[in-house]
Fold this sequence. Notes:
The structure is a homodimer of 225-residue chains. Chain A has 225 residues and is α/β, with parallel strands linked by helices.
Amino acid sequence: MATQRVPIIERIMDANDQLSLTVRKQLDDAGILGVNIMASPGAGKTSVILATIKALMPEIRVGVIEGDTAPVTIDADKVTALGMPAVQINTGGDCHLDAVMMSQGLAQLDLTGLDMVIVENVGNLICPAAFNLGTHINVLIASIPEGDDKPYKYTNIYRGLDVLIINKIDLLPYIDFRMDYFKQGVELLNPGLITFPVTATKGDGIEAWAAWLKSKIVEQKSKAL
Amino acid sequence: MATQRVPIIERIMDANDQLSLTVRKQLDDAGILGVNIMASPGAGKTSVILATIKALMPEIRVGVIEGDTAPVTIDADKVTALGMPAVQINTGGDCHLDAVMMSQGLAQLDLTGLDMVIVENVGNLICPAAFNLGTHINVLIASIPEGDDKPYKYTNIYRGLDVLIINKIDLLPYIDFRMDYFKQGVELLNPGLITFPVTATKGDGIEAWAAWLKSKIVEQKSKAL
């Protein structure tokens, strides 16, 4: 009797990673750029998202998925006030979004006519880093008042980034923030990381970030053709 | 045959809660006040702790347990520079401390001669709220640049507080922060919560907070006699 070959299945990815591929395909098929925005609470995720939408309006249409640990629609309301669709996800206390919630969020958005979906992840520098959502671009918003030592303390989230936005630059004169020390930490974890310094509430620096984003949107659209 | 009585055990507390009682007893027996400091990354936990130690020195001796997700001793080094003992706990990526880590941290501190142990929890507004450490006082440090909507978004952590410190008060002139709106949110979740406005890096407001803490230290010592 010939030895029977036993199939060996290696656990290459977990369920979340698996589902994130489905989400990615859904976005790709629709020619939509998916952007995952992460930050500490109060670093200015919503302010950056609002300023970005305004900078790209009316040419680019943006849908927003808002993650929160509580059932509040404070952020989503600000997005719909600009005439863009928004979905609120209440994680029920969980410290991050995952591919399941992302998938459910997308199902609630009419993707027709959208060019980009921005996900506002839960305000947290730890948990969101471990959960792939299927988006194309991982963005972290750091902020000046948080202090210059954050890359050294929250290494995992910095390692996985495609873009870093440094917000609240206007507060630099009032805060002891060593930009060299901060950037040195970032460079150690993520060499050559694309970085945009901004003050979102005043719109300063948003133009460059929005232009970069627009080039990615055009790129994504061309792939879907 | 008489019906046998079946013992019913209700799961009243989980393992972490159970262990936190042991930690609490250890602190009580030593007459040491345990203070758990929670905050978003960069709200100023370390700055408040350093200012507090300075305000209470040399009469009160403080040990500090520093929680971080990465193996960095940036914060612990600042404490030992003041001549107080510090222990660094690396959670290995976990978003909070728990009673096990707290117990291990205490084991590394010489409790003889200490009046207070301050725990600097991991920078996070979600996870730490769910894990009892056995400390006596839960403190949250909110900060002005985080924005005035945080109590509405991170309800669980506000509900469990004994004290709220509002840090970076000196940035109020440069930031659109509605103090009434903020305090209304806090009041809904935790009526009558003791609150100290401070600017830790300048020492402003620390005196009142330190005096309150000192009264609690005296109280705790008198219980151990």
